[in-house]
Every structure is written in C-alpha cells, then in structure tokens.
Write a sequence for this structure.
C-alpha cells in the first residue's frame, strides 16, 4: 500500500472517498468480500470508468474479472479518512436529541468524542449527561480553544439556527453538523452538513409506495 | 401541468425524483429561482442529459438559455411525491432520541404524523409524550392494523435492531427508517433506510480538514 504522503489525489477523487467508504462499509456489513467496478457503479450511481480511475490513484487494487477486495479498500480509505485520530466535538443544544447524542457519544467509534455541551436554557446549565457538563453559550469560545475542538453538532431548532451557527463560527469551529434542515449562511471556510430527517422519511415512503405496491404510477420498464 | 394519471415515468426516473426534490428544496431555501441542467448536474452528480430527459417526462419545464424554474419543479415533484396525503407513522424505541422525535413530530410537515409509540422497557409503558402514549411491543401488530400505519421509525440500538425490525415487519409495516446503522435483513417487499450519523460526521470532518486547511494531502486540480 502506498503511504499517505506518496498519494497525490485530485480534488474530485478526494471528494468521492467518503461516499466510497460509506458504501464499502455497508457491503462489508452485508458479507460482500469483493466487488466489480460495474456493480459498484450501479450501487453508488458513479460511472464505473470514474471509479476505476479514482481507485487507480491508490495503487494496484483491482484485478480484471475478480474485482476489488472490499476489506482492503476499506483499510486504504479508512487511513485516508484518518479515522484513527481523535476528533473533539462540541454539542450545542442539550434537549432530548442532544441528550441522546451525548448518551451514545459515538461509542462504536473511539475517535469521535463529544467533549463539551452548551445550551442557552439556564435550567440546563450545570447538568451532567454521560460525564459531560452542560455549559452556557458564553463559555463556548474559550472552551473550544482550550479543548482543541474543531467540530460542532447543533440540535438547536431552525428558529434559532442562524444565531447559534454564527456563535459556533465565531468560536473558531470550522465543521458543523446541523440537525435543523433550513439552510444557514456560513463563511466560505466553514463546512456545514445538514441532517434532514423529513426528507429522508419522505424519500423512504415514496420508494415504499411506488416500488412495492406500484399503486400510484404507471411505471414502465424502459430506461 | 400534466396530472399524475397522465404521467408515465420510467422506473429509473422515478427513483431520481426524491434526489431532485431534495436539492431543489435546498436551492429554493438558498434563494435560487432558476437553474440550468448543467449547473444542476454538477450539484447532484447526475449527467445533464439524464436530467433533461427525466424532466421532459413532466411536460415543457425548461427553456434553452433560461433553465428550469425551481419553484415550479418543486410543485410538480411535490405532487408526485404525494406530500399532501397524511402518512401515519409508528415510533419504536421511546428513549431520548425517540422522545426528541415525538416532541418534534415533523411539525413543519402536516402530512407526516407519528401516531403510535412502542417500547420494550416496562418503565416507559404508559408515559405520554406530546400526546402519544407509549405502548408495549406486544400491542404493535393490532395497533398498526387499526391505525392504518405503513411506516415505522426505529431508534432501537444495533444490539436489538434485527429483533425489533423483525417485529415491525411482522406487524405489516413496509417502510422502516432505522437509526441503528448496522444493516439488518428484511423481506424484499420491505424498504429500509438508515440514518448513519457517524458516517455523516466523518464525512464532514474529512471535508473540513482536506478542503479547508489542505493539511493532509497533496491536492491537485486535475480531473
């Protein structure tokens, strides 16, 4: 395997690695040991030529007629995704969802750790949840610097989302996972990702209604 | 606009509608009023020829040089996704995450309603959360039929995920949103979707580290 330092990866390839990693993990969990670029292409909706070119950056990974070794690829991508270095996370919003995240605290992934929690509600301040004390928003800037935190998870509802995200950005955090689906403005150097449960559920129900019972549509088999 | 009954949509097109809908909503929330197939293609990573062919099934939607009207497309796809008919949902697992979902109960979407909640923990049974009473798992089959429920959300951890999903399937439910990311087995006619917060967070951190500071990689601009 080439070492990280030796690998020169185009931007577009690098952006696809989390997608590859996610689906390879799913395949592995389903017991799949190897996969051809064509099958993988159908699964993830990326052209197989793109997949082969992307994978070629990481050395000799596939063999014609055999396909790619799933666990080997996971190892390579896991190294690239740097999943073994501890990431220190701040939680903003310690309501029911925040509590659920703190209690779970990504326990199956040693490298992901929520180390601080913040809330605007005075009644929440000082509560200890799974070893983490809830602090006032005004402490965020100082604690983020002191604890070396670069990532935040916000469970604050849409109505206060922009306001809270502004405070998170002001504290120096550059990566935000936001459970309020309404889009907020962040500076260019800040990465924000949304968890939109409503859209996930709508997609699921739509797929169930139309691809199981075929009640609502006149589906043809073309395409 | 063509009515639903008149539209004949190929399977492959139908499967892309939730993706189109999701991104168009995002564009709308960001203030974008129209979009060209080429720009949309770059955003969602679907070839622009595919997008134009897909959209052509819904009548005259785009004009050369002008692009597509975002709010019109949202209206068309919203009708197709049938977002105005009430969907009755069962929640399985009334812990912190379950409580958070019940308290929110998709309030911004009138058509999505959690109408029942179930838990295996005797201490939870009988508790009322946002108007919904938590019931024992043994009541599920009967209530699902009585209440006309077709969709379930499971917040049960991975360790009991397969067991609970089996019970959900046995009750007659055909669509499951699962917050335990470990893959479980379901019959072919059952649709299951996973919310994998760990992977979402890893992707976010990876994008932040590599596309902001460019510390770890030697990115080139090729591709």
């Amino acid at each position: 395997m080439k070492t990280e330092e030796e690998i020169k990866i185009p931007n577009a390839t690098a952006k696809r690695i989390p997608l590859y990693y996610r689906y390879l993990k799913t395949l592995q969990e389903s017991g799949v040991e190897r996969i051809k670029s064509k099958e993988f292409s159908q699964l993830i909706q990326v052209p197989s030529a793109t997949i082969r070119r992307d994978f070629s950056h990481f050395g000799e990974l596939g063999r014609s007629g055999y396909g790619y070794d799933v666990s080997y690829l996971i190892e390579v991508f896991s190294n690239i995704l740097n999943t073994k270095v501890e990431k220190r996370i701040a939680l903003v919003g310690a309501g029911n969802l925040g509590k659920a995240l703190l209690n779970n605290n990504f326990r199956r992934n040693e490298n992901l750790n929520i180390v601080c929690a913040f809330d605007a509600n005075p009644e929440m301040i000082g509560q200890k949840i799974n070893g983490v004390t809830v602090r006032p928003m005004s402490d965020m800037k100082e604690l983020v610097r002191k604890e070396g935190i670069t990532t935040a998870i916000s469970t604050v509802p849409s109505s206060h989302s922009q306001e809270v995200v502004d405070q998170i950005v002001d504290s120096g955090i550059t990566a935000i996972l936001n459970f309020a689906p309404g889009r907020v403005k962040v500076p260019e150097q800040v990465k924000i990702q949304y968890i939109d449960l409503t859209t996930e559920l709508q997609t699921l129900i739509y797929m169930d209604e139309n691809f199981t019972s075929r009640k609502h549509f006149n589906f043809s088999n073309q395409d």
